[in-house]
Amino acid sequence: MSAAIVPGDTETLAARAVQVTKIYGQGQTEVRALDNVSVELPSGHFTAIMGPSGSGKSTLMHCLAGLDRITSGQIFIGDVELTRLSEKQLTLLRRDKVGFVFQAFNLLPTLTAAENVELPLAIAGRKPDRAFLDRVIDAVGLRERLGHKPAELSGGQQQRVAAARALASKPAIVFADEPTGNLDSASGAELLGFMRRSVDEYGQTIVMVTHDPNSAAFADHVLFLADGRIVDEMANPTAEKVLDLMKKLGG
Amino acid sequence: MGKATLKGLLAHKLRLAATALAIVLGVSFVAGTYVLTDTITASFDNLFKQVTQGIDVAVRSEETFGGFETGEVRDPMPASLLERIRAVDGVRVAEGNVTGYAQLVGRDGKAVTTGGAPSLGVSFNSDTAFTAGSTIRSGRLPGGPNELAIDAKTAADTGYKVGDQVKVLFQGPARTFTVAGIIGFGQADNLGGARLVGFDLATAQDVLNREGRFDEIDVAAAEGVTPEQLRDRIRAAVDPRYEVLTGAELAEDTAAAINDTIGRFLGTALLAFAFVALLVGGFLIFNTFTIIVAQRTRELALLRCLGASRRQVMNSVLVESVIVALLASLVGLGLGVLIASGLRALLAGFLGADIPSTGIQFQARTVIVSLLVGLVVTVLAALLPALKATRVPPVAALQPETAFAPTGFRRRRIVLGVLVTLAGVAALLAGLFRPEGNQLVNVASGAVVVFFGVAILSPLIARPLARVIGWPFARAFRLPGNLARLNAMRNPRRTASTAAALMIGLALVAFVSIFAASIKASTTETLEETVSADYILINDNFQPFTPEAAERLAEQPELAAVAGVRFGPWKLNGVNKSLSAVDPAAYQQVVRTTVTAGNLSDLSSGGLAVKDTVAEANGWAVGEQVPMEFPRTGLEQVPVKAIYEDNTLNGDHLLGLATYERAYADQADSQILVKAAPGVDPADSRAAVDRVMADFPNVTVRDQAEFRDEQARQIDQIINLFYSLLGLAIVIALFGIVNTLGLSIFERIRELGLLRAVGATRSQLRSMIRWEAVIIAVLGAVLGLAVGVFFGWTIVRALSSQGITEFALPGGQLVLFVVAAGLAGILAAVLPGRRAARIDVLRAITTE
Description:
The complex is a heterodimer.
Chain A: E1 3-4, E2 13-24, E3 31-42, E4 46-50, H1 57-64, E5 72-77, E6 80-81, H2 87-97, E7 98-101, H3 113-117, H4 119-124, H5 130-140, H6 155-168, E8 173-177, H7 185-202, E9 206-209, H8 213-216, E10 221-226, E11 229-235, H9 239-250
Parallel strand pairs in A: 1-3, 4-9, 4-10, 7-8, 8-9
Antiparallel strand pairs in A: 2-3, 2-5, 5-6, 10-11
Chain B: H1 2-11, H2 13-51, E1 57-61, E2 63-65, E3 73-74, E4 77-78, H3 80-86, E5 91-97, E6 99-105, E7 119-123, E8 135-139, E9 147-151, H4 152-158, E10 165-170, E11 175-184, E12 195-199, H5 201-207, E13 213-214, E14 216-221, H6 227-237, E15 242-246, H7 247-295, H8 297-305, H9 310-351, H10 364-390, H11 410-433, H12 439-476, H13 478-490, H14 492-529, E16 535-538, H15 548-554, E17 559-572, E18 575-582, H16 584-590, E19 595-598, E20 608-611, H17 612-618, E21 625-630, E22 634-644, E23 653-656, H18 657-663, E24 671-676, H19 682-693, E25 700-703, H20 704-747, H21 749-757, H22 762-798, H23 811-828, H24 830-838, H25 841-846
Parallel strand pairs in B: 7-12, 9-11, 18-23, 20-22
Antiparallel strand pairs in B: 1-14, 1-15, 2-3, 4-13, 5-14, 6-7, 6-10, 8-11, 9-12, 10-11, 16-24, 16-25, 17-18, 17-24, 19-22, 20-23, 21-22
């Protein structure tokens, strides 16, 4: 049982998990994906979650984002406790408070890049904040590609559209699940640079699951998971430090 | 390989269920039609075997005028023939009998009608040798001039019992009789829906206008003489224009006449609807297999990688279709038996025919044809997708999915589509305007080819059409509407072929409604332009009635003109024709005719007037002698007295009444047109007509408005029957939408998951699916409407010479069809929508 408390140099928490356990299956086939995990994710921070395959890092992210139900414990986004929410309330919370960047298939193929960026706003039927949207679009460098369909964009461009979409509704927190997993290193760095800037410039909160030390180096903090528990943490990571710790944990 | 197919089949039970349903419905209609017609045929065969019991040989006149248009016309035989037959060696007993028109008047004073079958007056044989055919249910056989017997069905319908006084209408004067007996025919209460009034021979000859003549002579053979021997002996003894049949042959022939009617109309009509259902089903199957093959691209490629040949890949798809076809056809066969019982009950109600109960006839032909039809339609529809499957290269297994890349041979599609459509249109027009071969078949196959052509072309216009149709949905329903519109546009081929199935049903419905509206408009037009009569009097079963009615009407001072119209068949160089016979003096006052040559009034001394196009085609001018062959008098030279322009009512030939009275045995009016005297109040003239016609309750009096309404009512009745049968095709097409959407959801599961992840609610997803279904349905409806309007226009134009002179577009109704299609789309989206809303978000976005 290990609780990793991120040093709170900001006054508010964007999200937190309190003694969260997630069990898949029953009896013989029971898998304890998360084992009594507690995490606090402060606003305006870029947090990376690392760990080997099967460590539970994706499960933790899905639970934090309200995509998956937990077996016991509590999850908060802002002040809202997710475990008490109905399916519909969870959906609306995702719509209004959460942004997502997945590893692949982030975009609706029928919509243009611009329409994809505005998708959560369109779902909510809200008017986009034009000025903010323009800044985001310029920041990801998609101005010329706005009218294109996803099939006409490169993998890196597609992920940048996804990132822009995640920011467009000004969510309380953005979850990114291996966002650079399908990208070459240059495209990946470009995307991560944008995410970093959004934290620095707009105070966006980002939680990113990754297994790549270079990606983790863009974060403010890194949490390390293994066998469903948080086993270590690191502030102000660099690729080398992360790699060293991974070796140590792995060995 | 076979195992892989089977496993694949089981894995996709659900999507195949909808496919199979299309086949099930189509096949069940085919099987049901056969079972029904076979059962009815067997019933009538048995019935007439029963009725002709005891008759070894029957003699009657040869049918001089036959065919659908004129009905069976046989000249009565002279009584002397009976004596000649009695003298033939081996005849034990011979008796003549007669058949004619007689209609009972019910307790309410109205004529007892049928559902289309004739109202017959007959004489009963008196010798016990022949009476086994009918069964006396109560009372006894009629004897003497004041007695009659009626069939049990009529007795039940009217409530008449033995001893009641009943009034009977004839072509001559009406008379009152006492019911002496009520008869049945074995198990059956009547003879195929006909109303029967029976008398003894002398009475029947008197009231049916058959004095000294017989319609049929029945003969029983002496001991030791077979019916065949006797038949041959009698045949040798009588004039060859008399037909000599054994009792069995007579039963067969009589049953065949009824069965031919049922088989030709009922059977053909039902099979046509079954064919439409199967055609729509074929589109559905094609669509399903195309989507399945597209979705299984990687799986098929993997099989190719593992060494499966193209042929094996193709077979795996075809074997799947064969299994589906066989299962579905078997189920359809079973369902067909149920449908047959349902249809039979419907028929009995509709025609008022008491169809005698015989066991359900389930013939080998029914099984073979049903299975074969199901198999052929399914496999043909799956053939193209199967060929497509063979084009999957093995390397596709290793490449990332290129999910939606409907790249096509655009130009090839245009060329092919246009060629096929044009070929269909050409066949349609040829069938309509060139009287060669089976026109109905030509028109129908032309229409089918047009459907295929439009279906080939429709993917080209599906995208822009879906864009336009989807626009209001995108506006009204924001994101779900917009996504629905985009989804409908993304794979135009799939959208188009799903819509094409609906197109067929809608096109036929639209055509039928246009056709009906045009008939109604034409009737109105004809009434306004041509008919100057104030009252139109007809028998609602199209039975001719006594000229006495017209004679008595003519005596009324309130009426200016009374024109009886008589119909009759004749032959021109052996070809059946029909004519109307009129007294020109009265007729010209009730019907406006534009005469181009000669003078219609000259018909008063007999002679013929013809339509200008007919005169032209035959090269006839006024004064020309036309060789007319009549049933009674045979060949006669009749002079042309006048030539007129088409006005629908006159028909092709108008005969002077004087000629008609000489040339035809029966003198009866088929309609009377009445014009009120000038200055007489309509209420008074109507009262005068009604007063006279109270004695002729078999004739209905209508003014122009009532006549128009009655026509409209009858048309609507038939149209509604058509609508309900075409409903089947539309239901199948809706299953197609369900199926396509279901398969699309399966394919778009990650998109749906993504939408849910970023905050789309379940109801938003459902609404997205709903509007996509509606857009597809409306697209199909719009295409169908376009094709239907085209069919309607060409066919109405083609039939302008048949009296359908006006083309009417029932706009409101057509719009209603589109709206109904849209509503049906909402219904079709329920299940897929529920499925889309239920997807597991996490699994959808995390699975590869």
